[in-house]
Amino acid sequence: MSKKVRVRFAPSPTGPLHIGGVRTALFNYLFAKKHGGDFVLRIEDTDQNRYVEGAEDYIVESLNWCGIPFDEGPGKNEKFGPYRQSERKHLYKQYADQLIDAGKAYYAFDTSEQLDAHRKGHEAEGKTFIYNWHNREKGRLVNSLVLTEEETKAKIEAGEDYVIRFKSPQDETLALNDIIRGDMSIDTNVLDDKILFKSDGMPTYHLANIVDDHLMEITHVIRGEEWLPSLALHKLLYDAFGWEAPEFAHLPLILKPTGKGKLSKRDGDKMGFPVFPLEYTAPDGTVSRGYKEDGYFADTVVNFLAFLGWNPGSEQEIFSLEQLVNDFDLARVNKAGARFDPDKTKWFNHHYMQQQLDLDLASEFKTKNILLKDIDVNYIALVVGLIKERATFVSDFWELSHFFFVSPTDYDEKASKKALKEGTDEILNKVVDLVNSTDDFTVENLQTNIKDWITDNEIGFGKVMMPLRLALVGALQGPDVFDIMYMIGKAETVKRIEALVETTK
Ligand code: GLU
User: Fold this and answer.
1) pLDDT-derived band of residue 366, with 50, 70 and 90 as boundaries?
2) Domain holding 49: CATH number?
3) Average pLDDT score over residue span 228-245
4) CA of 282 to the centre of ligand 1 (A)
5) Which of 1, 164, 280, 299 is packed most tightly, with the most Cβ within 10 A?
6) Cα 11 to averaged position of ligand 1 atoms, centre (Å)
7) Among residues 140, 171, 205, which one ends one of the domains?
8) Position of motif 'HIGH' region (predicted)?
9) Considering 236, 255, 274, which residue would you say is the last residue of a domain?
């Protein structure tokens, strides 16, 4: 039997989770669920300088809101825990030591001033300074490859600052594979000797990431394209430890709506869309908008994110989370960057709006609008049922439905010109009679009475229906006139028609 699929989402808690990060989490989730595997959340907080209070909670809330909760992670099902790297500090040193003992890593004592000087010297000659095979043993750099064992020991014991660097192999061609990108090969001579461990007792991202993926029995690493340049080092580390490497899949970048460059928060600010799942208040008080608060449904976010890089190979665009789990396949993820389309996102929201329960939408509408405070939520739900096909967001509702709740206070000028003609007042007076005489006040009865009267008297439909609509709505907009009359009731209908007649006098 093959190994149980285990994937992880490994964000650094440095601020709110960008939708690119949510997409990474989603693809991990889909892959795990598709293969009956586990979706792990690991918090990569080794860089204390970049740590932001509240960021971890934000990440967890975002995943939960999207409906893609982790199976294992901080505070949940901790069989491979702890899941915060800051709580695993004690684990990493032994692995760095193991590589040193095997001659695959070394101590380096170069100070940042010395390294700066090397960098500047190289720059002056138009070269880039790389710490690796070509200079590490030449004597200008201070490391345990050139010092004697005693010298190295003495420095460490004297409390000198050091780092542990990986000894990248010289003159090797490394074969790499990525599920999305296929086979690649890399000349190890271009790699630098990355720092694995610092004398402050903290591992770097690379070491901690590999050690944890190994200890947590991760089978597939699915992450953003920005980590592709680290793949060679990661593969070399697995080899150096003698561990079986997981499979890798690097997801394509999410591009700006123009298709040029990576999608940033600034693009969202400029073009009026969020780049974060939930609203976020930074420690300095700045607020960034979120999809949830902007009125997007979680289903929308999941659906549009799935299409940023993946496609089902058919024309189908609407996918529930369940369908995505069923159809998702890393083989159908593109290499090329995925352009973010804010209009398409709205299109998805319009679709998912139609799937919501009217009563749920109504309670949200009610809580967001003070004018609805005293109105029965069941009435609001009926209104919602009549107007939601024109709405993308709950925030569109008032504009589409105010006339179900309050009488028009004025009449649209253009609409009035179009609807009010010679004789309109007589027609409207007759409609008032018809409305008054409709005892059983149903949509069907109103419709029959008024339409029959129009037909019998050979009056153009527009001549009646346009002013009637104007009277009820204040404009030539809105759902079916008979639905509106039925909803607002006989007395209010009569009142509104009479109010319009009054203005024509
Ligand atoms: N901590 C890294 C990040 O913030 C994780 C990269 C990876 O998945 O290996 O994205």
Assistant:
1) very high
2) 3.40.50.620
3) 98
4) 21
5) 164
6) 5
7) 205
8) 11-21
9) 255
Q: Which atom of ligand 1 is nearest to the CA of 222?
A: 8
Q: Count of domains in the chain? A: 4
Residues 200 and 101 in one domain: yes
Give which of 307, 318, 294, 313 is closest to 340, Cα–Cα: 307
In a domain, 222, yes or no: yes
**Whole-angstrom distance, CA of residue 78 vs CA of residue 84:** 11
- With pLDDT > 90 as the criterion, what percentage of the chain qualifies? 96
Contact 82, 43 (CB under 8 A): no
Q: What is the CATH number of the domain that holds 117?
A: 3.90.800.10
Going by alpha carbons, the residue nearest to atom 10 of ligand 1 is: 11
Distance of CA 9 to the CA centre of its chain: 14
Residue nearest (by alpha carbon) to ligand 1 atom 5: 10
Atom of ligand 1 nearest to the CA of 21: 10
Q: Which two tokens stand for residue 424?
A: 């309109």
Residue 235 among known ligand-binding residues: no
Residue 346 forms part of a structural domain: no
What is the pLDDT, as a whole number, of residue 306? 98
Give the active site residue among 76, 265, 346, 495.
265
- Residue the block writes with tokens 């229906």: 465
Q: Is 209 in the pocket of ligand 1 (CB under 6 A)?
A: yes
Q: Is 85 in the pocket of ligand 1 (CB under 6 A)?
A: no
Do 201 and 108 lie in one domain? The reply is: yes
Torsion of Cα atoms, 163 then 164 then 170 then 172, to 10°: -130
- For ligand 1, atom 3, the nearest C-alpha belongs to 11
Which one-letter DSSP state was computed for residue 245?
P
Which residue has tokens 């010092």? Answer: 147
List, for residues 385-420, the tens digit of each pLDDT value: 999 999 999 999 999 999 999 999 999 999 999 999
Centroid of ligand 1 to alpha carbon of 252 (angstroms) = 15
Q: Report pLDDT for 305.
A: 98
Atom of ligand 1 nearest to the CA of 10: 5
Max alpha carbon distance in the chain (Å)? 112
User: What is d(CA 232, CA 86) in angstroms, rounded to the nearest whole number?
Assistant: 25
Question: Do the Cβ atoms of 295 and 349 come closer than 8 Å?
Answer: yes
**Overall average pLDDT of the 47-51 stretch:** 85
Whether residue 260 lies in the annotated active site? no
The CA–CA distances, whole Å, from 284 to 15, 99, 289 equal 12, 42, 15
Does 301 reside within a domain?
A: no
Mutational pocket test of ligand 1: of 205, 207, 222, the residue with most ligand atoms within 8 Å of the beta carbon: 205
